[in-house]
Amino acid sequence: MVKIRKVVEKDIPRLINIHLNSLPEDVMSVIGKRILDKYYSSILKDKSNYIFGIYYEKHLVSFCCIARSTINIIEIFDVFIISSFFKLFFSKPKIIFSAIIQFLNHHKLENSLEISFIATDVNFQSKGFGRMLINHINEYFGKMKIDYLITKTSNDRLKRFYIENYNAKTYRTFKIFDKKYYYLRWWI
After folding, report:
1. What is the pLDDT of residues 132-165, one digit of tens each?
2. Pairing, β 148-153 against β 169-176
3. What b-and-e string marks burial along 138-160, b requiring 16 or more CB atoms within 10 Å of the CB?
């Protein structure tokens, strides 16, 4: 049986594993579990941000992190994370430069919510869980005074998905090295 509900603190280790395996190129995945643990813990503590999950037989298999306010990433850095960041700066500079450029290009629309991460366990992908989460989010927040749901992607297939299923519009683009990123928005 599949159930959608808000993720709770005890589910963070499972959420981190999904993030690491489904988003291996994400800079936070590359830095490691510690930054993900601090990030998602801070999201759960901030009442203006949300993480919804899909539970299959009581196990988290997919999640969507929704941000109304921006988490100050600097606040979750500690000595270990900073040292990991600097090691990456020398071993994988392209990833670090990409993260910095994305941070500098971050753009939020007024009266909107942002999908900051959406991921599904690799063993449960292509089962429609992402669509279920987004539909749930549209319904959940459609009752509030939120105009748009926004997201950023460099994945052309995902961009088409948002355009075809949610009538999303591209409202901003930027390029990092050879990769083009799109900010998309749709009415909820």
Report:
1. 999 999 999 988 888 999 999 999 999 999 999 9
2. unpaired
3. eebbeeeebebbbbbbbeeeebe
b/e burial code for range 42-78 (CB count within 10 A of at least 16 → b): ebbeeeebbbbbbbbeeebbbbbbbbbeebeeeebbe
Closest by alpha carbon to 114, among 75, 177, 64? 64
pTM for the structure as a whole: 0.89
Tokens found for residue 27: 């800079």
Domains of the chain by start residue, with CATH:
2-92+106-146 (3.40.630.30)
Tens digits of residue pLDDT in 82-127: 788 778 788 888 877 787 777 776 776 678 999 999 999 999 999 9
Task: Give Cβ neighbours of residue 133 (< 8 Å, ≥ 6 apart).
Answer: 4, 52, 54, 62, 63, 64, 118
Please give the Cα distance from 36 to 176 (Å, whole number): 23
d(CA 138, CA 149): 8
- In 3D, which of 88, 109, 106, 110 has the Cα closest to residue 97? 88
User: Could you please report the per-residue DSSP string of 136-178?
Assistant: HHHHHHHTTT--EEEEEE--HHHHHHHHHHH--EEEEEEEETT
